[in-house]
Amino acid sequence: MVEVEPRLLIVEDDLDIADMLSAYFRVQGYEVFTANWGEDGVKAGQTARPELIILDIRLPDIDGYEVARRLRSNRRTQDIPIIFLTDKRKRTDRLTGLGLGADDYITKPFDLQELRLRVRNSLRRASQDTLTNPVTTLPEGTLVDERLTECLPKTDWAMLVVSLENLEGFREIYGFVASDDVQRAVSLMIQNVMRRIGNPGDFLGHLGPTDFVLVTSPEKAPLLKERIRTQLEQSLEYFYPIKDREQAASGGKWLAVEFGELLPSDGNFTDCGRLKSALLVKRS
Predict the structure, then answer these.
(1) Cis peptide before 209 (omega within 30 of 0)
(2) In whole angstroms, how far apart are CA 42 and each of 46, 61, 78, 101, 229?
Protein backbone atom coordinates (compact mmCIF):
# COMPACT_ATOMS: atom_id res chain seq x y z
CA MET A 1 0.00 0.00 0.00
CA VAL A 2 1.41 3.37 -1.03
CA GLU A 3 1.70 5.86 1.85
CA VAL A 4 0.19 9.25 1.05
CA GLU A 5 2.31 12.27 1.94
CA PRO A 6 0.62 14.59 4.44
CA ARG A 7 -0.23 17.95 2.86
CA LEU A 8 0.91 21.15 4.55
CA LEU A 9 -0.04 24.70 3.66
CA ILE A 10 2.42 27.41 4.73
CA VAL A 11 1.01 30.95 4.69
CA GLU A 12 4.01 33.25 5.25
CA ASP A 13 4.88 36.56 3.60
CA ASP A 14 8.61 36.35 4.38
CA LEU A 15 9.86 34.52 1.30
CA ASP A 16 13.05 33.32 2.99
CA ILE A 17 11.11 31.72 5.85
CA ALA A 18 8.51 30.29 3.48
CA ASP A 19 11.19 28.72 1.26
CA MET A 20 13.11 27.38 4.24
CA LEU A 21 10.01 25.77 5.79
CA SER A 22 8.92 24.39 2.44
CA ALA A 23 12.30 22.75 1.82
CA TYR A 24 12.54 21.44 5.38
CA PHE A 25 9.12 19.78 5.44
CA ARG A 26 9.53 18.34 1.96
CA VAL A 27 12.66 16.58 3.19
CA GLN A 28 10.57 15.31 6.12
CA GLY A 29 8.17 13.65 3.69
CA TYR A 30 5.40 16.24 3.42
CA GLU A 31 3.70 17.62 0.33
CA VAL A 32 3.95 21.39 0.80
CA PHE A 33 1.95 24.30 -0.61
CA THR A 34 2.82 27.92 0.08
CA ALA A 35 1.00 31.26 -0.05
CA ASN A 36 2.44 34.69 0.71
CA TRP A 37 -0.82 36.65 1.06
CA GLY A 38 -3.78 36.08 3.35
CA GLU A 39 -6.37 35.98 0.56
CA ASP A 40 -4.23 33.44 -1.31
CA GLY A 41 -3.97 31.41 1.89
CA VAL A 42 -7.76 31.23 2.20
CA LYS A 43 -8.06 30.10 -1.45
CA ALA A 44 -5.25 27.55 -1.07
CA GLY A 45 -6.89 26.14 2.04
CA GLN A 46 -10.06 25.52 0.05
CA THR A 47 -8.39 24.13 -3.09
CA ALA A 48 -5.38 22.21 -1.77
CA ARG A 49 -7.30 20.80 1.23
CA PRO A 50 -4.17 20.44 3.41
CA GLU A 51 -4.06 18.28 6.53
CA LEU A 52 -2.50 21.20 8.44
CA ILE A 53 -1.84 24.93 7.98
CA ILE A 54 1.15 26.87 9.35
CA LEU A 55 -0.16 30.41 9.41
CA ASP A 56 1.71 33.66 9.99
CA ILE A 57 -0.29 36.41 11.70
CA ARG A 58 1.42 39.40 10.04
CA LEU A 59 0.47 39.29 6.37
CA PRO A 60 0.43 42.05 3.70
CA ASP A 61 -3.33 42.14 3.14
CA ILE A 62 -5.60 40.44 5.70
CA ASP A 63 -3.97 39.19 8.87
CA GLY A 64 -3.68 35.58 9.98
CA TYR A 65 -6.58 35.93 12.40
CA GLU A 66 -8.92 36.86 9.53
CA VAL A 67 -7.55 33.96 7.46
CA ALA A 68 -8.34 31.61 10.35
CA ARG A 69 -11.84 33.06 10.78
CA ARG A 70 -12.65 32.48 7.11
CA LEU A 71 -11.24 28.96 7.17
CA ARG A 72 -13.20 28.13 10.32
CA SER A 73 -16.44 29.48 8.79
CA ASN A 74 -16.17 27.24 5.70
CA ARG A 75 -17.37 23.65 6.06
CA ARG A 76 -14.63 22.41 3.75
CA THR A 77 -11.85 23.87 5.89
CA GLN A 78 -13.34 24.28 9.39
CA ASP A 79 -11.56 21.24 10.85
CA ILE A 80 -8.07 21.76 9.38
CA PRO A 81 -5.55 22.15 12.24
CA ILE A 82 -3.86 25.56 12.34
CA ILE A 83 -0.51 26.40 13.93
CA PHE A 84 0.03 30.15 14.23
CA LEU A 85 3.58 31.22 13.47
CA THR A 86 4.29 34.77 14.56
CA ASP A 87 6.58 37.26 16.23
CA LYS A 88 3.75 38.41 18.53
CA ARG A 89 4.39 37.32 22.09
CA LYS A 90 1.61 39.05 24.01
CA ARG A 91 -0.81 36.92 25.99
CA THR A 92 -3.76 38.60 24.27
CA ASP A 93 -2.42 37.58 20.85
CA ARG A 94 -2.16 33.96 21.97
CA LEU A 95 -5.67 34.03 23.40
CA THR A 96 -7.02 35.48 20.16
CA GLY A 97 -5.44 32.64 18.21
CA LEU A 98 -6.69 29.95 20.60
CA GLY A 99 -10.13 31.55 20.61
CA LEU A 100 -10.25 31.09 16.82
CA GLY A 101 -9.62 27.38 17.25
CA ALA A 102 -5.88 27.31 16.56
CA ASP A 103 -4.27 24.04 17.55
CA ASP A 104 -0.98 25.61 18.52
CA TYR A 105 0.97 28.84 18.60
CA ILE A 106 4.71 29.24 18.13
CA THR A 107 6.72 32.47 18.09
CA LYS A 108 9.68 33.58 15.99
CA PRO A 109 12.53 32.84 16.18
CA PHE A 110 11.53 29.19 16.42
CA ASP A 111 13.25 25.84 16.65
CA LEU A 112 12.65 23.73 13.53
CA GLN A 113 12.66 20.46 15.44
CA GLU A 114 10.09 21.81 17.87
CA LEU A 115 7.90 23.01 15.00
CA ARG A 116 8.21 19.60 13.35
CA LEU A 117 7.08 17.88 16.56
CA ARG A 118 4.16 20.28 16.95
CA VAL A 119 3.10 19.60 13.37
CA ARG A 120 3.35 15.86 13.98
CA ASN A 121 1.33 16.06 17.20
CA SER A 122 -1.38 18.20 15.60
CA LEU A 123 -1.67 15.77 12.69
CA ARG A 124 -1.96 12.85 15.09
CA ARG A 125 -4.78 14.57 16.94
CA ALA A 126 -6.54 15.48 13.69
CA SER A 127 -6.29 11.94 12.32
CA GLN A 128 -8.46 10.78 15.23
CA ASP A 129 -5.85 8.19 16.22
CA THR A 130 -6.35 9.68 19.66
CA LEU A 131 -8.62 12.27 21.24
CA THR A 132 -6.17 12.97 24.01
CA ASN A 133 -3.31 15.43 24.40
CA PRO A 134 -0.04 13.76 23.32
CA VAL A 135 1.82 15.20 26.33
CA THR A 136 -0.63 14.81 29.24
CA THR A 137 -2.98 12.14 27.74
CA LEU A 138 -5.92 14.23 28.97
CA PRO A 139 -8.99 14.64 26.74
CA GLU A 140 -8.97 17.53 24.29
CA GLY A 141 -10.73 18.71 21.15
CA THR A 142 -13.94 16.80 20.43
CA LEU A 143 -14.06 15.06 23.80
CA VAL A 144 -13.84 18.37 25.65
CA ASP A 145 -16.43 19.97 23.38
CA GLU A 146 -18.81 17.07 24.00
CA ARG A 147 -18.42 17.36 27.77
CA LEU A 148 -18.93 21.13 27.76
CA THR A 149 -21.94 20.81 25.47
CA GLU A 150 -23.55 18.40 27.95
CA CYS A 151 -23.51 21.22 30.52
CA LEU A 152 -25.44 23.72 28.37
CA PRO A 153 -28.99 22.73 29.42
CA LYS A 154 -28.00 22.14 33.06
CA THR A 155 -27.63 24.50 36.01
CA ASP A 156 -25.68 22.34 38.48
CA TRP A 157 -22.16 22.76 37.12
CA ALA A 158 -19.10 24.88 37.71
CA MET A 159 -16.04 25.13 35.49
CA LEU A 160 -12.52 26.02 36.47
CA VAL A 161 -9.84 26.97 33.98
CA VAL A 162 -6.23 26.52 35.09
CA SER A 163 -3.69 28.17 32.79
CA LEU A 164 0.03 27.54 32.92
CA GLU A 165 1.67 30.87 32.10
CA ASN A 166 5.18 31.61 30.78
CA LEU A 167 5.78 28.05 29.60
CA GLU A 168 7.06 29.45 26.33
CA GLY A 169 9.78 31.41 28.14
CA PHE A 170 10.65 28.30 30.13
CA ARG A 171 10.86 26.28 26.90
CA GLU A 172 13.20 28.81 25.31
CA ILE A 173 15.71 28.24 28.10
CA TYR A 174 15.32 24.54 28.96
CA GLY A 175 13.88 23.01 25.79
CA PHE A 176 10.62 21.35 24.79
CA VAL A 177 11.35 18.08 26.64
CA ALA A 178 11.57 19.94 29.96
CA SER A 179 8.43 21.96 29.14
CA ASP A 180 6.54 18.74 28.36
CA ASP A 181 7.60 17.43 31.77
CA VAL A 182 6.09 20.55 33.36
CA GLN A 183 2.79 20.05 31.56
CA ARG A 184 2.60 16.40 32.58
CA ALA A 185 3.42 17.18 36.21
CA VAL A 186 0.83 19.97 36.39
CA SER A 187 -1.86 17.70 34.96
CA LEU A 188 -1.01 14.98 37.48
CA MET A 189 -1.13 17.43 40.40
CA ILE A 190 -4.55 18.66 39.32
CA GLN A 191 -5.81 15.09 38.97
CA ASN A 192 -4.48 14.15 42.42
CA VAL A 193 -6.39 17.03 44.01
CA MET A 194 -9.53 16.01 42.13
CA ARG A 195 -9.24 12.43 43.36
CA ARG A 196 -8.88 13.57 46.98
CA ILE A 197 -11.66 16.13 47.21
CA GLY A 198 -13.62 16.19 43.95
CA ASN A 199 -16.73 14.36 42.79
CA PRO A 200 -16.49 10.93 41.09
CA GLY A 201 -17.88 12.35 37.85
CA ASP A 202 -15.67 15.45 37.63
CA PHE A 203 -13.94 16.04 34.29
CA LEU A 204 -10.51 17.40 33.36
CA GLY A 205 -9.37 18.20 29.83
CA HIS A 206 -7.51 20.72 27.66
CA LEU A 207 -8.88 23.96 26.24
CA GLY A 208 -5.44 24.62 24.75
CA PRO A 209 -1.95 23.15 25.19
CA THR A 210 -1.43 25.03 28.48
CA ASP A 211 -5.08 25.65 29.44
CA PHE A 212 -6.87 23.01 31.53
CA VAL A 213 -10.64 22.97 32.11
CA LEU A 214 -12.20 21.23 35.11
CA VAL A 215 -15.94 20.53 35.24
CA THR A 216 -17.30 19.98 38.74
CA SER A 217 -20.21 20.98 40.99
CA PRO A 218 -20.72 24.52 42.34
CA GLU A 219 -20.19 23.22 45.88
CA LYS A 220 -16.80 21.69 45.12
CA ALA A 221 -15.39 24.42 42.85
CA PRO A 222 -14.09 26.87 45.51
CA LEU A 223 -12.22 24.20 47.47
CA LEU A 224 -10.79 22.59 44.33
CA LYS A 225 -9.60 25.98 43.12
CA GLU A 226 -7.94 26.76 46.45
CA ARG A 227 -6.22 23.38 46.77
CA ILE A 228 -5.03 23.29 43.16
CA ARG A 229 -3.68 26.83 43.41
CA THR A 230 -1.80 25.99 46.62
CA GLN A 231 -0.39 22.77 45.19
CA LEU A 232 0.82 24.35 41.95
CA GLU A 233 2.20 27.57 43.41
CA GLN A 234 4.25 25.58 45.92
CA SER A 235 5.62 23.28 43.23
CA LEU A 236 6.48 25.38 40.18
CA GLU A 237 9.87 26.58 41.42
CA TYR A 238 11.10 22.99 41.66
CA PHE A 239 11.01 22.62 37.89
CA TYR A 240 14.05 24.93 37.77
CA PRO A 241 17.64 23.99 38.66
CA ILE A 242 18.52 25.54 42.02
CA LYS A 243 21.09 27.83 40.44
CA ASP A 244 18.47 29.33 38.10
CA ARG A 245 15.51 29.90 40.40
CA GLU A 246 16.30 33.44 41.51
CA GLN A 247 17.38 34.52 38.04
CA ALA A 248 14.27 33.04 36.38
CA ALA A 249 11.95 34.81 38.80
CA SER A 250 13.63 38.19 38.37
CA GLY A 251 13.82 37.86 34.58
CA GLY A 252 10.08 37.57 34.04
CA LYS A 253 10.31 33.99 32.76
CA TRP A 254 8.97 32.43 35.95
CA LEU A 255 6.28 29.80 35.52
CA ALA A 256 2.93 30.86 36.96
CA VAL A 257 -0.69 29.74 37.06
CA GLU A 258 -3.87 31.69 36.47
CA PHE A 259 -7.38 30.60 37.40
CA GLY A 260 -10.87 31.36 36.25
CA GLU A 261 -14.25 30.14 37.43
CA LEU A 262 -17.48 30.00 35.45
CA LEU A 263 -21.04 29.30 36.62
CA PRO A 264 -24.29 28.99 34.61
CA SER A 265 -25.39 32.32 36.08
CA ASP A 266 -22.42 34.11 34.47
CA GLY A 267 -24.01 34.26 31.05
CA ASN A 268 -26.41 32.89 28.46
CA PHE A 269 -24.34 30.04 27.08
CA THR A 270 -26.04 28.71 23.98
CA ASP A 271 -23.12 26.77 22.53
CA CYS A 272 -19.75 25.28 23.40
CA GLY A 273 -17.84 28.10 21.74
CA ARG A 274 -19.40 30.69 24.04
CA LEU A 275 -18.50 28.59 27.05
CA LYS A 276 -14.85 28.31 26.00
CA SER A 277 -14.55 32.01 25.19
CA ALA A 278 -16.03 32.93 28.58
CA LEU A 279 -13.61 30.60 30.36
CA LEU A 280 -10.58 32.14 28.66
CA VAL A 281 -11.51 35.68 29.74
CA LYS A 282 -12.39 34.67 33.31
CA ARG A 283 -8.82 34.02 34.37
CA SER A 284 -7.16 36.15 36.99
Answers:
(1) no
(2) 7, 12, 11, 16, 42
State the Cα angle at 183 between 182 and 189, rounded to 5°.
Answer: 85
Phi, psi angles (nearest 5°) of residue 258: -125, 150
Distance CA 113, CA 163 (A): 25
Instruction: Provide the b/e sequence for 202-215 (b: ≥16 CB within 10 Å).
Output: bbbbbbbbbbbbbb
**Residues paired with 10 in a beta bridge:** 34, 54
All structural domains of the chain: 7-126 (3.40.50.2300), 142-281 (3.30.70.270)
Q: What is the spatial distance between Cα 220 and Cα 224, in angstroms, rounded to a whole number?
A: 6
The pLDDT of residue 25 is above 90: yes
Question: DSSP character for 132?
Answer: B
> How does pLDDT run across 186-237, given as a tens digit for each residue?
999 999 999 999 999 999 999 888 899 999 999 999 999 999 999 999 999 8
Q: Which residues pair with 165 in a beta bridge?
A: 256
Say whether 12 sits in a helix, a strand or coil: coil
CB-based contacts of 99: which residues, under 8 Å, 6+ apart? 276, 277, 280
Beta strands in 80-227 (DSSP E): 82-86, 104-107, 158-165, 203-208, 211-216
Neighbouring residues of 206: CB distance < 8 A, sequence distance ≥ 6: 133, 136, 138, 139, 140, 144, 212, 213
